[in-house]
């Protein structure tokens, strides 16, 4: 019988992918945990905490999504380079 060639696989879960997942999950957790921000104090320039906290997460979500995208692109380029292919 012939032996099957040894196939080496790259790990599916890398540290970069773990950070990407955290960047994408954090806004959901923050917004679904309503008890943490369902209050009026402290106010910021007259705006109750409930509202400015949500608006702050709009900006934070944008930054985290951008970070996740950049990490994903870097991860894909590194994988393509290891395989010897051209990056897209």
Automatic annotation (TrEMBL):
InterPro entries (alphabetical): DUF3311
Keyword terms, alphabetized: Membrane, Transmembrane, Transmembrane helix
Family matches, as PANTHER family: BSL5891 PROTEIN
Pfam families named among the record's database cross-references: DUF3311 (PF11755)
Top-level lineage group: Bacteria
Protein name per its UniProtKB record: DUF3311 domain-containing protein
Membrane spanning stretches: 18-38, 50-72
